[in-house]
Amino acid sequence: MGFMDDAKETAETVGRKMKDAWDDTADRIGDKVDEAKADANVKKAEAEKESVEKRNELKEQVRGDG
Fold first, then answer.
1. What is the DSSP letter of 66?
2. Counting beta carbons within 10 angstroms of the beta carbon of residue 48, is it exposed (0 to 12), middle (13 to 18) or buried (19 or more)?
């Protein structure tokens, strides 16, 4: 019966390690997705800032401030 117990324990260990590897991979993918979203938000904010600055410059020119 020792062989069967060893085989069962080995299978459980392999199963745990596979689950841990899967969880780690899922976490890494999630981290990359979060990073990509953050980069997109930064680019959007930068574009909005540039748009506001340009609009303010045009308003200053129209008012004769610039």
1. -
2. exposed
DSSP conformation class of 60: H
Q: How far apart are CA 45 and CA 63, in angstroms?
A: 27
pTM recorded for the entire structure: 0.62
* pLDDT one digit per residue (tens) for the chain, 66 residues: 688 888 999 999 999 999 999 999 999 999 999 999 999 999 999 999 999 999 999 999 999 865
Tell me the DSSP string of 3-53: HHHHHHHHHHHHHHHHHHHHHHHHHHHHHHHHHHHHHHHHHHHHHHHHHHH
Contacts of 7 by beta carbon, 8 Å cutoff, 6+ apart: none
